[in-house]
Amino acid sequence: MTLQWFLGETQGAYSVPDGTDTVVVQAGSLASVVQAHTFSRGHGCYGGVRVTTKPAASNGSASTSELLARCQIQEPQEVPR
Q1: Fewer Cβ in 10 A, N or C end of the chain?
Q2: Which 3 state secondary structure label does DSSP give 55?
Q3: Per-position pLDDT tens, the chain of length 81
Q4: Cβ atoms of 48 and 64 closer than 8 Å
Q5: Is 71 helix (H, G, I), strand (E, B) or coil?
């Protein structure tokens, strides 16, 4: 399978490519695959991944995007007295 990593300004916007990884999975395997990616570009607050297979899956590709920790707004902490 091929994992294409993207950055974007809004969730689901795959506008800035950030890399591609290829992972070999045996046909018919039910094993989970975990693949880490460190986003190297400073564009966008949403990191996304699109997963495709060869041959192509009958339901197409899968994708998701999430807000990156570097962009999350921290609530001010009240200092105890």
Answers
A1: C
A2: coil
A3: 999 999 998 988 888 899 999 999 888 888 888 999 988 877 788 999 999 988 888 888 899 999 988 887 765 667 666
A4: yes
A5: helix
Residue type present at position 7: L
Q: CB pairs under 8 A, 24+ apart, for 13-18?
A: 13/44, 13/46, 13/48, 13/65, 14/48, 14/50, 14/63, 14/65, 15/44, 16/41, 16/43, 16/44, 18/47
Secondary structure element (H or E) that encloses residue 52, with its range: strand 46-52
- Residue 26 is predicted with a pLDDT of 85
- DSSP code, position 70: G
Q: Which two tokens stand for residue 60?
A: 């197409």
What's at 31, amino acid-wise?
A
